[in-house]
What we know:
Elements: E1 15-20, E2 25-28, E3 38-42, E4 45-46, E5 51-54, E6 57-60, E7 69-75, E8 80-90, E9 97-101, E10 108-114, E11 124-131, E12 134-135, E13 139-140, E14 147-151, E15 161-169, E16 172-180, E17 192-198, E18 206-211, E19 224-232, E20 239-244, E21 248-251, E22 260-268, E23 281-283
Parallel strand pairs: 1-8
Antiparallel strand pairs: 2-6, 3-4, 3-7, 5-6, 7-8, 9-10, 10-14, 11-12, 11-15, 13-14, 15-16, 17-18, 18-21, 19-20, 19-22, 22-23
Amino acid sequence: FCPTFPAPLSSLGASIQYERMDGDVTMRCGSLDSDASVTWKVNGTDVKAHHREEGSRLILMEVDLSNNGLYSCFQNPNGERRDQINLRIGTSPREPTVTCRSNTYPKGFYCSWHLQHPTSIPTDFDVTVLHNQESLEVTRDVVHKNRCHVLFPEVFSSYPYRVNVTAVNALGKASTTITFEEINIVKPDPPERVVATPIPSNVRRLEVTWNSPSTWPDVEIFPLKYFLRYRPLIRDQWQHVELTDSTAHTITDAYAGKEYIIQVAAKDMEIGTWSDWSVAVHATPWMDKPQQIPFTTDTYPNPDPNPNPNRSPPPLSRNHSSVRTPNLTPTLTPTDPLHH
Length: 340
């Protein structure tokens, strides 16, 4: 059992009244007679929603979430407050969606659940797990409120597991049951610390390394295999490499000078499914510095050591011809095999 239901207490000592969406709601003013004269307030103001009053009763018509609030009734004519009701509008739960997964094989597995349709009121979840007709201990996750953990009672069991999750609130309940074998729920977490590094003087290579997921208990006894994918940012098509029991790979066919995006997934060597992809990393292969084209300044006059901006340039002689300036723009030959 995984308790997630908050205590049914209301502020200011008021009682809590849960009611269904779109229905009519009747609230009674404490223990007063049904024909007593009272005045109703909601959150300290007059009740403006569609309603009618019958003696000491307040009847709201076709309620929705806007009718939530703290309702107070006062006895006439002295105005003494006789009751407070915290009205909460919601719905009964529908069947929860349940999934189970082992990312710590063979240690154990966890099950998660959620409601596709919110109930708008506190909802509890009762979880039971059966294996070989025995009930297993279920431990609530300290971070995820809709998750519980179960230890495998044995490894390589041929008996299926049966998990039932029942959603319960003040307006109703609904259940979902799933059945599975342990080998079908094994799915590691993604590899960690993926690093891609250019290799000096190799314009088409990238060295990729990573760590096995830290949640995997024993990679020596239960080894993992890996699936690496990579592509240049300028293209949509991935290239793939599957690796057995290795946490490094050298990409040898990268396009020179192009930035790459790289991800890795993991899987048990024999059972289960592939993990999600790791966080993407970006890297660019080694790039040689462009070669500079040398030139001389022999054809240029020496700079004036004492320039005077107000001094006029010397007159040109009749036989003077203009100096031709060489083209200083270097011509580079592209090495990228991609053409755009």
